[in-house]
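Need tokens for this chain, all 179 residues.
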Amino acid sequence: MKNYEIPVWFNDAKLGIFIHWGPYTVPAYGNEWYPCQMYDTTYVRRSGGMEWNYYKHHIQTYGDLKTFGYKDFIPMFKAEKFNPAEWLDIFEKAGAKYIVPVGEHHDGFAMYASKITKWNAKKMDPKRDIAGELAAETRKRGLKFGLSSHYSENWYYYKFDKKFDTVDPENVDLYGRPH
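Here are the structure tokens for all 179 residues:
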């Protein structure tokens, strides 16, 4: 790292857009840590005078976590209003010089067409290569594109218990191996 030189374009760029968007937005409750917290029976987040109990909310809204787990939000993630050109219009108007969406959050769902995992936006819903479409539009306009991966935290993101769907071998590619 001592010898790494920051690219000139980055030194000149004053604004970049970082995007967290994926199936975890379907429940529209709390934040992108919903998939993690919905399996945690003890976690309660207190913020701005509000109390967020993800587990309790999930049970009351969607039911048992053995039958309706995080994987079940994926078919509901349609992205029907996703339009990369409209997004880039907004980003450019704001003065952004680079765009960096999350390619794969801790949840294990890839927002790109993947040959490694079936849990991706191209093979499952929304049946689109979200990251690829954003990359093409970003580059077409002469802006820089990056893709971040947060998958390293997948190891401890989900809780494993026989009352959850996280222990089902069919879901190991998404949730990771029970440990």
